[in-house]
Amino acid sequence: MPDDTPVLWQFRASHFNEKARWALDWKGVAHTRRTLLPGWHIPRVLWMTGQKSVPVLVIDGQAVADSTRIIEKLEALCPDPPLYPADPAERRRALALEELCDEQLGPHVRRAFFFEVLDQPDFLVEIFGADEGALTRGVYRALFPMTRMAMRVDMGINADSAARSRDKVEKALDQLDAALGTSAYLVGDRFSVADLTMAALLSPLVWPAEYSYPMPEFPAAVAGWRATLAGRPSFRSAAEMYRRHRGASAALAA
After folding, report:
1. What is the model's pTM?
2. How far is 66 from 93, CA to CA, in rounded Å?
3. Between 116 and which of 77, 101, 132, 221 could a Cys-Cys bridge form, CB atoms 3.0 to 4.6 Å apart?
4. Which fold has domain 88-245?
């Protein structure tokens, strides 16, 4: 395999990581994926980027952190098929909606979702560690109480913050519902970065069959919240974007 093959450092189950994977797959960029375990990922990612978040794409001799910056890099290197609309006004609108999803949807879906499932370590080890061997999974499961504590502190997860995050999600979806109107797409009549971001960041609630990896049964703890959102145009559109546009993986075999 060539040394210059792009490498995506990722969590297997993460909606911001899914956003980066989808962009790579949409553009047909052959790449390898290196899956990390939450908590255990910090030393490697800090060494590569000086910060602790994934995804990180190593491409063109550069480590690019953050899903939005990854898409920006891919647009520059591989403009076809595009994720940014050609029309300048539509491009500005698509990027504004991407930012809305990044700031007002993604972090709050994550916080409220993990509030419901952090006390289900077997479920979380299954979705995070499915690529690991039995020994690593066993150690990760045994040490998960420390990971859970760190996640609660890092993401500010508690009952009050989860309730505020659910409210933030509702308000973000109000704006996305309005942006959709009667269209299948958020901007114009083509799939764009706005649609990809909305769908990927809603994936922990939509739980689409087309997600990058097989996932276990939808967590019952989240089902009630999901049911309150499932009738929204934005929620239905996210599921439709997965059906229409998720496509085949461009990841190379490990």
Report:
1. 0.94
2. 20
3. 221
4. Glutathione S-transferase Yfyf (Class Pi); Chain A, domain 2 (1.20.1050)
